[in-house]
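Dear Dr. H.,

I hope your travels went smoothly. While you were away I took the liberty of generating a structure for the chain from your last submission, since the lab meeting agenda had it listed for discussion. I wanted you to have the full record in hand beforehand rather than looking at slides cold. The sequence, exactly as received, is reproduced here:
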Amino acid sequence: MSYFEVLALFIGPPLIVLALLAWRDGRRKPVAAWGVLAERAYLAVLLHVAIAMAYTTPWDNYLVATGVWWYDPALVIGLTVGWVPIEEYTFFVVQTLMSGLLLLALMRYAFTRHAPLKPSARLRWIGAASAGAIWLAGVVLLLSGWAHGVYMGLILGWAMIPIVTQLAFGADILWSRRGLVAAGVTLPSVYLWIADAVAIQSGTWTIDPAQSTGILLAGVLPVEEALFFTVTNVLIVFGMVLMLAPESRSRTRDLLTRLRGRATQQVPVWANRSEEA
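The corresponding predicted structure, in token form, is as follows:
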């Protein structure tokens, strides 16, 4: 099965359905969940596509360049950017679109209400510290020299940095919408696990057994691949929820106000005197 056939078979149908649903909802429901304008919601999806491309491209090129995973040259069209086939970049885009549009559909139809936010700096620090500990474990795994831990370490070291930032900013906001977050992460992750297992069995791409743990889910799917699709959907869902939550906007304004206040306090005395003169 070629790479584009995998995309057409597994990503094409749900993405088309979600896109049509989003188009219909944009016409019938100009305001999405939480009082967010439909245009703003779709802009958030597109912004995450751009972020996914920018953040994942160098990391994924490194994986292919170092042989952590490889693709069958006979099953791609042969156009590459760096070490990665164009199909892989297409996957970055369509996965983000699928997961982002699915999240918006869940917001509109399944999770229209959520628990009132109870601001908690403690929860934010616990979330960020926990994610930071996982990131540190990934770094230790890489530095340990254990060849079979390379892929796992690279995933954790790459993914947990933005997740730490997301949790530090809004773990309490995410917790107040935990049902939406759980569904938004679980549904596309499990679906992509299945697609990935089929692609691996078809020889579309291969995970290097020398740089992975060898732990297989259902005897087929490397645990690292399951982790990869989970953390990428975590990044999308956390980012989308935080970007669209009204509480995030007020929190951002407060944060910017505090930062401006600190910057003003740090202006040298002589500068203020020169302005007065």
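Two observations you may find useful: The longest helix spans residues 38-65. Residues 106 and 180 are 7 Å apart (CA to CA).

With kind regards,
E. W.
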